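Record 1 of the preview.
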Amino acid sequence: VAAGVEDVGGLQHLLELVSRIQVALYTGTAERLVPYVDDLWRRLERARMLDSVVHRWPALYSRARLLLGAAAETHRPTAARALRRRADRDIQRLARLPSQTAAALAPLLAGTLAAQRGDPRAALSQLQAAEHACRSQRLALTQMAALHLRGELLGGDAGRRHQAEAEARLGREAIERPALMAFLLAPYRRP
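->
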């Protein structure tokens, strides 16, 4: 019975991690949340909640998004580079997990990271791969986030068409601020 209680406590911490990161990205407070998430991550590791791929991929995906969001927020270039390096490590870990969902999400974040680093060619390639992978995994929201960011990077009429398509599809899901939803999933530049 005690092990079951420990598992529930660990699961609550995992759900807290994901929820707090969503709120921080939504409210523009990602940078402030990083130290708290670092502490929470250590508690999750102690509770062995990150040993399971089922728990590890959402934790890595969430933390990488937090780090990318914090890098997009900060006005300190040195801090932004450090946050991106940490996000890169999480993205690489995510890509290596034996999970089709993780494999679909990793290129979305890798494309976001490449965009933040100023490498549009790599970003566009990764985002196109993310669109296909997310489509095959039926991850419609993340597929649309990849399309939206790809449109932003392409620019021009083609880019605007991509963004409009993504925003229309997100809008059909009753999402009132589609550009913000795209940012929550692929935090490149806050809308």
